[in-house]
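Aim 2, interim progress. The first record below pairs a target sequence with its structure tokens.
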Amino acid sequence: MKPALPATLGELASSEFHEARLRTRGVREEIRANLLCALERGDALFPGIIGFGDTVAPQVANAILSRHHFILLGLRGQAKTRLLRALIQFLDPWLPYLAGCQIRDNPYAPICPRCRLLVAEQGPAATLAYLTPEARYVEKLATPDVTIADMIGDLDPIKAARGGLDLADELTMHYGLLPRAHRGIFAINELPDLAGKIQVGLFNIMQEGDVQIKGYPVRLPLDLLLVFTANPDDYTARGKIITPLKDRIGSEIRTHYPATLEQGTRITRQEAWLDRDSRRQLCLPGYIQEVVESIAFLAREDKKVDKRCGVSQRLPITCLENVVSSAERRALRHKEGLIVPRVADIYSALPSLTGKIELEYEGELKGADAVARELIRAAVGRVYTRYFERANLAPIVQWFELGGTLKLREDQPAEATVKQLEAIQGLLEAASALGADLPSDPAVTASAAEFVLDGLYAHRRISRSEELGYQAEERKRETRDHDEFPSRGFRKPYN
């Protein structure tokens, strides 16, 4: 709720609201002061941003306390933009400015000609308006077509003609993004993509704090915190960013992907759209989410994936959303009460994976689908080891070695799947241990049992094909057939 705030310059002067601080401090001093208060209270610096508490967040805090302009260097999907947008929490809740001013001028120290005339004519009667923290954050994506006029401003001949003014008059200026961000935070995403001549235009703002428009001696001492993001390879590449601009950036801070699987799953669970409007309840097993997250971790290590591009955290987020959608579609078709994803649903989510990995030459030869399937299989194997490293699942493997086969359809109902699984000795017992903390439901049992089978397949203890489904691993089948049909007097039958 907006408090009762002074409406005119006279009321502001006679009130205690920001009066002393407005005269003396700029936006970087304001952010620094509010950060110091947050640190004294022990507040979390960037709530909602997981994994940066001991690495990136302290470095950003140091940059703010040093009153630095700074840049975040990191690969895609590392929460760089989100971190910059979170800086508004350190701005004052209400900031007065002269009403109608395009650059939100300080009532006590106006810099634009229109506001100087207004204060001179109206004095204490000059009306005020107020800025919220959100209105003081301006963001621009750097693209090659950005011009100096977009960033700083230009002459407006229409304004000059309507007012009968000379083009050299300051009142004919049309302000760009930087002047309109005055007394706030100005963020530029992907800084190296900004043309060199535009980068030169940032020099004076960062060092002397002013701009000049169209060659006229118009000086605007802007009060800004400038923050940037960039890809490390682009930032260090010769010709991408000019050296004098790098020299003027106070702090260079490296971001990173989640360091642990637990951090990654927390981020994915927080960002993925899982609160569906379906009438059915979602039951998301932990092992399914761990497999989805492990795909991203394995992709970042895989030699077939381009390390320079990185693997965005959006990969597990969109993959998990697709996995849940596949399970939701199956539950609706068979009128099941619970939505329980299975490993088969992860394979159904390939479209959400292939577009988010850039492949090296070896990966291009295999193809994105084949690489994604390998990653899923490896992820299942890694998570399976966490749950069943010391478990004795030999009876399950033996059932297949004795000639058993099992073909499961991705879209078949849970009860039909469980009936098929009951024939395999020891499988449901292993599945029940896996889903001990989940509701007792055929869909939960089917999901857990399928995970056990896919884990055995990932570790090459059983085999799987599109035609026959799960079966004994190839060398075991050959050994069994040799035992049944020894070479003396018998030949192995043809399939």
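The second target in this work package is listed in the same format:
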Amino acid sequence: MILLLGKIVLGYLIGSISGSLLLGRLRGVDIRTQGSGNAGGTNAFRTQGPWFGLGVGLIDVGKGALAAWLGGLGAPDGTPALVAALLTGAGAAAGHVWPLYHGFRGGKGVAVLIGVLLLLWPVALAVLAAVLLLVLTTTGYVGLGSILAGWALVPAAVWLAPERDRSVWIVATVVIAVFILFTHRSNVSRLRAGTEHRFERIRVLARLFRR
């Protein structure tokens, strides 16, 4: 138990390394003072351009995968290793949202969770990407796409997760979905108010349907 708690704390410390704030320091900017004020990849892309956003995404996905990998080390093979990896990955996601090194003001955790899933259950990424792409190309809302993609993981766990660990993945995906909804609560408020930022250029399907 002490080892597991240590891994979760380590995951939190890894997650607290913010890709956007790290790269922002090299450029002399703090993206929390620009755009939506969020330190995540979407705001980085929107305010600093695609290459900056890509760099942020790679760092944040990487730290999620690293945390999950470290979490599984030394744990008994099978379900115990999976649970340890998931909990350590959860610590990294918490660190990303509430980073110790940056005044507890971070991003929304989606990229970190993608890194965790990339290592532990790559099939889930296909579901997440499909839903996110569908929502983006029809509505242009990144936040809405992230929320719906998160909830799509729950039925995916029921139908697609390995049978041996299916119950673990069902619980994990419910937690992931609730976590994403919580971290995107400001997006929900803006959607209800009609002030949410929309990426018009990516609404390819919406333009096709209007023809």
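The radius of gyration is 17 Å. This observation will shape the mutagenesis plan for the next reporting period.
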